[in-house]
Design a protein that fits this description.
The protein is an all-alpha fold. It has a domain of about 220 residues. About 60% of the residues lie in helices and about 0% in strands. The protein is built from 15 helices and 2 strands. It has a two-stranded antiparallel ribbon with strand order 1-2. The chain starts with 15 loop residues before the first helix and ends with a helix. The structure holds zinc ion (2 copies). One zinc ion (ZN) binds next to helix 4 and helix 6.
Length: about 325
């Protein structure tokens, strides 16, 4: 058992510790290696690439009448706003407590994350803490590795890790993972009013599309691109992290699971694709630990820190990283 792994992050103590994804605190048993077949990896690749290709084809076909620079701007703007709500807010702040911020910023990030339509913040954070605690073991809510042998088991695993886990009924004990979050009144309010924020997230691009083109068709396409297509894109990319990044990529650190660093999802997933780094150092605010590992979510946190909106930003010490390096 590795004791020193997260001590460099500092202050988390007591009941909250094991649920923040600290492998030193939660993993008593050594990880059982899963055999990853080429077929599994290739099927996953097809499942991930085809929907992307479909979206790009749609954009090309509709360019000029159903898609324009304005709609591209709305799509990209909404993608980053709600995507950072998930990566900076739901994931790095609420699930892993990798930095601290004001109540107002917490509410803002939770609202933006809710607009991504990945469920209320409490449910997401609880599921994700469980993912870290049981990564690729029986209780992992979205491992691609636990659905039996053969082609059918493999397809089930891929479907489940990609989207299926979201439709699971709440496990009775799932909220025992987030006692710290449940004490926060602001978060309670945002989590309970989830549906409202989904609606607001659809309204904003619709109104923008209408105002920027001064037309009803512009409003409709604002809704389609900045609302529906953007939700699809954020879902597809965040969920690809759960499947692709437990199948494809490098493992520079010992993390006791199948997590991998994947350069494509490092860039597209706003830094979340440096997933082996993340599983090795779950409470680090920075996932792209090398200078060339682009991590836009960390750049946002760093910017917040520079202007006084974030503090206690946790980064592993060089010696801690060295100790966990795979040789
Ligand atoms: Zn993972
Ligand atoms: Zn995580």
């Amino acid at each position: 058992m590795e004791i020193s792994s997260d001590s460099a992050f500092g202050v988390v103590t007591g009941a909250g510790l094991s649920s923040l994804g600290d492998p030193a605190a939660v993993r008593q048993q050594p990880h059982e290696a899963h055999e990853i077949s080429l077929l599994l990896k290739l099927t996953n690749l097809v499942a991930v690439v085809v929907p992307f290709a479909g979206l790009i084809l749609g954009i090309v076909m509709l360019w000029g009448w159903g898609f324009s620079w304005i709609h591209l701007g709305i799509l990209v703007g909404m993608y980053f706003a709600t995507g950072f709500g998930i990566t900076v807010g739901y994931h790095r702040l609420f699930t892993h407590k990798s930095f601290e911020t004001s109540k107002f910023m917490k509410a803002t990030l939770a609202v933006l994350g809710s607009m991504a339509v990945e469920g209320p913040v409490f449910k997401w954070a609880a599921q994700h803490r469980r993912h870290h605690q049981h990564s690729d073991d029986h209780d992992d809510p979205h491992s691609p590795h636990l659905h039996g042998k053969g082609f059918k088991g493999m397809l089930q695993g891929l479907w489940y890790s990609h989207v299926g886990w979201l439709f699971d009924k709440d496990q009775p004990k799932v909220y025992s993972y987030i006692p710290d979050l449940m004490k926060c009144r602001v978060l309670q309010w945002v989590s309970n009013t989830f549906t409202l924020w989904v609606f607001v997230g659809l309204l904003i691009p619709t109104v923008l599309g209408g105002l920027l083109t001064m037309s009803w068709t512009g409003a409709l396409f604002g809704f389609v691109w900045g609302g529906l297509a953007r939700i699809f894109l954020v879902h597809h990319i965040t969920w690809s992290i759960n499947s692709v990044c437990h199948l494809w990529g490098s493992q520079p650190f010992r993390s006791h699971d199948e997590s991998r660093n994947n350069v494509v999802f490092g860039v597209l997933g706003m830094g979340e694709g440096w997933h082996n780094n993340h599983h090795a150092f779950p409470t680090s605010a920075r996932h792209g630990l090398r200078w060339w590992q682009i991590d836009t979510s960390y750049y946002v946190i760093r910017l917040m820190e520079l202007v006084g909106l974030a503090w206690q930003v946790r980064i592993p010490a060089p010696a801690t990283m060295e100790a966990k390096r795979n040789r």
